[in-house]
Amino acid sequence: MRPSFENIDLNERPFLVFWEVTRACALACKHCRATAQPHADPQELSTEEALKLIDAIAVLRPPMLVLTGGDPMMRRDIFDLIRHAAGKGLRVALSPAATARLIHTDFMKLKEAGVQSMSLSLDGATQETHDAFRGVPDTYVRTLQAARMAQEAGMHLQINTTITRSTLGEVDAFLELMKELKPSMWSVFLLVPTGRASLDELPSAEEVEAVWHRLEELSVDVEFGVKTTEGHHYRRVALQEAKRKGAKPARHAVPTRDGKGIVFISHTGEIQPSGFLPMTAGNVRQDELAEVYRSHPLFVKLRDDDALEGKCGRCEYRRICGGSRARAYGMTGNAFASDPLCSYQPR
């Protein structure tokens, strides 16, 4: 089940904590935010530091802790970290790479350790397009296999799909694939130019708008949830369509964005607004995570809807959307500028 948003003050605690437990990964994905590498960084948090970080995360009481990477399965102590987090009352989600290592992992042991949710990436609707995107053969087959294994183990399954210029034409094919996989949630990620992701792969704002309208249309008739990552203006489209139809949106929109309900901890302990917005506000090795999230000027300003500039600052939907601060930063150098991939003109 999706964690509840009720009674959460996003100024006091985040809705989601993303922790990049390692940058080690066997894949070579074209869009990799982390620019992952085959071996662990010698500066990544030690087991002792990692356990201390989990204690600090528990203070914030987020509805979900997402262990990501790199590939979190590359950490030898991953089961210990999962068990410690679950023991602190944290809802643990795991975002592994679809490798042979994952397929040979006992998913029931992951579930017993405390993994309640698993997110897997499908960035091509066919084996050819997905494997080309991921940079390693057979990742498509392994992803489908891992999805089945997660569901059989009783985990909540989320499928993440990155929309790029080259995959725009696969939206309907992706939908048919989701109907077969039956995930709990399909999260459509709109590319941010950071890490290995390049500007050349970004679709136009008009193309993005068309995708959001298509997703809103499709979301009405499917059994799984549909949401977006770094595509906050999908919430605006859903509200507009609901108003036009005289109905309520298909699902409640949690008004998160980089630094607002989201906090990211890097493999070396850096505290950032998200994994796609590389602006560092502290480090867990010497700073209190809760204090940085609640009080650091960067986070405070990112949560201020009236601090947004350009048309995002004038937009009547800024409180539920606010645009991607990461994409604004990646494309303009200003984290408070308008989201360049939104075509909407405020009234």
TrEMBL record:
It comes from the Bacteria. Its cofactor is [4Fe-4S] cluster. SMART domains: Elp3. Gene3D superfamilies: Aldolase class I. Keywords: 4Fe-4S, Iron, Iron-sulfur, Metal-binding, S-adenosyl-L-methionine. Residues 11-227 form the Radical SAM core domain. CDD domains: Radical_SAM, SPASM_MftC-like. One of its GO terms (molecular function) is catalytic activity. PANTHER family: RADICAL SAM DOMAIN PROTEIN, TUNGSTEN-CONTAINING ALDEHYDE FERREDOXIN OXIDOREDUCTASE COFACTOR MODIFYING PROTEIN. This is Aldolase-type tim barrel. It comes from Akkermansia glycaniphila.
